Amino acid sequence: MSYSRDFLALTSVFLITIAGPAAAIVEPDNQGRWIKPTGIGPDKEVPGFLVNLGPTGARAILKENSFVVKHVFPQSPADGNLKIDDEITGIDGTKLAKHTFGKFYGMKYDIGYEGPIMDFGNAIEKSEGSNGHLNLDIIRDGNAMEVTVKLKAIGKFSDTFPHHCAKSKMLAANAIDYVLDHQDEHSGCVHEKGTRALALLAHGKTKEAKKLAHSWNKMPTEKSWTWFPSYQCIFLSEYYLQTGDKGVLDTIRKLTERLYLSQVIDPELYKDSMHGGKPQAKNFLKGGNGHGARIAGYGTMSITTLLAMLSWELAEDCGVEINEFNLNLAYDCIHTHTHQSGYMGYRFGTGAYTPVGRQGLSILVHQVAGDRDQQDYVKRVTKHLAKSKTRLNDGHGDNAQAVIWGLIGIQQSGDEKATREVLDYNKAFINMARTHDGAFVIQPGRNAAEKAYYLSPRIHLTSGMAIILGMADPKLKIQGHKAAR
Q1: Does the structure show a pLDDT above 80 at 1?
Q2: Structurally, what CATH architecture does the domain formed by 166-479 represent?
Q3: Is the whole model's pTM more than 0.90, yes or no?
Q4: H, E, C per residue of the chain
Q5: Can you give the pLDDT at residue 482?
Q6: How far apart are alpha carbons 59 and 55 in whole angstroms?
């Protein structure tokens, strides 16, 4: 960048609070959501928010050491092999390991999705790398037996996936094809819309991306939350960098200005803020962005601040002049409220919820900006993101954002060891999220406020995985493409 930034020193060490052991799913009853279906796409026929058993086409309830099948898609590999209420207890004669249920919102990261989910995902990898036979030990009507689900023998992920990996390339192509073929599944969620738009660009779908860019080449309403101008600006900036379509530049400029309105410049202005009958003044961090276009509610958040920063950095690459004052304040806020360990909370350096989406975004923002003088910060966040690999699927409100930004950011960190640590640990999770028809579907996590499955069960995550598994051939700045403009 052509200007320098003076950053505030990191805050002193905070007391780390532990809320309990980590767990892939909060409660044995999945907070009542095993029987709460979504109303979007082909998952409407699924009786609830169940664990997807990878490309088998089966969905199940998770128990400590088993799965209980509750849905089988017609004409899927599981159709005719698995039946409703079959209990899957093992694979190839080996019992499934134990899963630990429990609520966890603190900073600990030592336990992840070990147990039936990881075991089943690893078995998918093994079977696809051989003859495709997935041999399951089940209990049906009280009788123990073995059934075989035949998967396509598509091979394993390479040791360097998604780079130099035929499986990654194929899954990414299938994912973007699914997105294009299922236009009616789009829910209108802005996270989904922005990610889908980026996925089109990432796979050279210029015609479709142009149509979306032209329809989105207008300002959101005054009441729209910060997420709307951020995702819109990120997409239109990437679109301009790829196509040179100057027709979107004025909107990009106006969007960057709009994002200034959701940034706290003077916390004193919010000293009397209330939300839900409680004082909120301490939550309005200087330089941070809130939910709304004009700040209200319960204060600023790290993720909305980082999305605004990414918008500003990409817009600047398009030639749009960005106010240095606002940008510097945002960097100061993020650096001040990142824990010395590299953990990033909801808004403070300690606190709640999985950090991986915020950590991935922070890494990405710094790398897009090209700030060589902040590599110590990036290294610290990268190191903690690698430790937080166990919490990839535990995002607050929309866990697809945690998965997507976490996996993009770690690949842009420049740290190959950390990248492999995160990707390799979550290889089984990626396999489990795959559907039999080429999509990826939201999986249950441990956050009580998780809504992703009901916002966009497939299109959001499928679009994100099309970007992530396509990183070997980058076309977006956020994928590492060096734009010529």
Answers
A1: no
A2: Alpha/alpha barrel (1.50)
A3: yes
A4: CCCCCCCCCCCCCCCCCCCCCCCCCCCCCHHHHHHCCCCCHHHHHCCCCCEECHHHCEEEEECCCCEEEEEECCCCCCECCECCCCEEEEECCEECCCCCCCCCCCCCCCCCCCCHHHHHHHHHHHHHCCCCEEEEEEEECCEEEEEEEECCCCCCCCCCCCCCCHHHHHHHHHHHHHHHHCHHHCCCCHHHHHHHHHHHHHCCCHHHHHHHHHHCCCCCCCCCECHHHHHHHHHHHHHHHHHCCHHHHHHHHHHHHHHHCCECCCHHHHCCCEECCEECHHHCCCCCEECECCCCCCCEEHHHHHHHHHHHHHHHHCCCCCCHHHHHHHHHHHHHCCCCCCCCCCCCCCCCCCCHHHHHHHHHHHHHHCCHHHHHHHHHHHHHHHHHHHHCCCCCCCHHHHHHHHHHHHHCCCCHHHHHHHHHHCHHHHHHHECCCCCECCCCCCCCCCCHHHHCCCHHHHHHHHHHCCCCCCCCHHHCCCCCC
A5: 84
A6: 10
Query: Mind listing the pLDDT tens digit for each residue in 331-345?
Result: 999 999 999 999 999
pLDDT score, position 206: 94
190-202 helix and 459-468 helix, angle to the nearest 10 degrees? 30
pLDDT over threshold 50, residue 33: yes
Cβ neighbour number for residue 414 with a 10 Å cutoff: 14
Separation of CA 316 from chain center: 25
Mean pLDDT computed over 283-309: 89
Count the alpha carbons within 13 Å of 30 in the hemisphere toward its beta carbon: 21
pLDDT of residue 293: 67
Least confident stretch, 38-52, 134-148, 217-231: 217-231
Mean pLDDT, to the nearest integer, of 273-279? 89
List the structure tokens of 449.
């406020």
Rounded CA-CA distance 439/55 in Å is 9
Q: Taking the domains of the chain in order of start, what are their residue ranges? A: 30-150, 166-479
**pLDDT at residue 6 above 90?**
no
Residue type, 313: E
pLDDT tens digits, one per residue of 392-410: 998 888 999 999 999 999 9
Rounded CA separation 354/79 (Å): 36
pLDDT score recorded for residue 395: 85
CATH number for the domain formed by residue range(s) 30-150: 2.30.42.10
pLDDT of residue 426 exceeding 50, the answer is: yes
Let me know: does 86 contact 140? Beta carbons within 8 Å: yes
Q: Residue 5 — very low, low, confident or very high, per pLDDT cuts 50/70/90?
A: very low
Tokens of 315: 């817009």
Q: Reply yes or no: is the peptide bond before residue 162 cis, omega within 30 of 0.
A: yes
277: left (phi over 0), alpha (psi -120 to 50) or beta: left
